[in-house]
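Researcher: Let's try something more involved. This one mixes different molecule types, so please make sure each is placed in the same coordinate frame as the others.
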Amino acid sequence: MPKTETFNREHVLEKATEVFHKKGYNGTSMQDLVDATSLNRSSIYNSFGNKLNMFIEVLSYYQQLNNSDFNQGLSKSYNASEAIKIIFNINLSRILNDNDRKGCLIVNCKSEMTNQEPLITSFMEKHQDRMVAVLEDIVSKGQMEKVFNEEQTANQYALYLFTAIQGLQMTGILNKSKEDLTNLINTILKVLE
Amino acid sequence: MPKTETFNREHVLEKATEVFHKKGYNGTSMQDLVDATSLNRSSIYNSFGNKLNMFIEVLSYYQQLNNSDFNQGLSKSYNASEAIKIIFNINLSRILNDNDRKGCLIVNCKSEMTNQEPLITSFMEKHQDRMVAVLEDIVSKGQMEKVFNEEQTANQYALYLFTAIQGLQMTGILNKSKEDLTNLINTILKVLE
DNA sequence: TCTTAACTGAAATGATTGTTTCAAATATAA
DNA sequence: TTATATTTGAAACAATCATTTCAGTTAAGA
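Model: All components are placed in one shared frame. Result:
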């Protein structure tokens, strides 16, 4: 009986992500989203509820894209040291390709909304837990393989790496020198040796 | 002949800074600023031009406060290693006192507006140059004093430290554990030894 | 004291905000 | 083909947006 959705939901999310990424949550209007998705106003409200809900779907979509990039890269790594380098190199190439200085959508959102929207706060807490868990796993393996030192616990190093990635993403907004950034990453990773 | 400003400009900037810091640039309305400063609409436009101009004055005001904190701390340091630790400890105590998870206004603004407002872009470039110069100075002294290694140039370490501070500020939005953050800072500084 | 230029207060500007409404169009299941 | 649930399009909603206007108040120089 129901008429099914005629638009491609993923394509709509992709377009909405572009806008939110470029302009931020508060800088994006419903009209911007209508224009970008070429969807009707009421279709957006019908399918996504409201602006905040749509944004949360966008965040998840963006996070999922990031994750599959990481997983794809990590599947090719044969040791912990390689794995960490792959994660940082993925971030490096994102920075170098980010010609319009948008930065990372998740970091941007964390600084814009974590203190305003409880739904965003818990998203960010889960995001950090997930990222730290992934990093902790890798560091832990590296410590067993004796390629990383054990001066700090794997969990402590994981929080350090998570922090470094956020810092790298912030620095990468203005600094696009591949040489500088590569050197920066080497310095960051030195402490693990 | 002119009637002079009756309000205290610094007090107004302080109140405006609070609002912008809490809600971000796009999240703050002129009405918010009128309420916070208890200044009349037209007085604000008379004295600050427009919203963006007022925000830029707020940014400078905030930056100036930060700088005087740093200078006050650094004047008490007797070597380079102390100096770096003081800078990180100032950041640490700011994080621990930031009960409403606002983060750093400059970092927030960098991620919200650098790709949208040329005036902000150049502010951020100058800010980075200034911070890196200060850090480079300290690292350079530390290398001469042989308390820091010379595996990287002072400038490279300065960019690393600048990046680490930004990362620390991002992590500090959600993580307020003094133990975790102190450990994190120690890990960050280890590479200099 | 008078003039003058700046400041102040309140109201009004038109544009834009997020969201709702509702009739018309549509596609599926019977 | 018909009944039905859903999507769609366009218009309308009140609220809020940043900014302007302007008459009235104020204080300093002559």
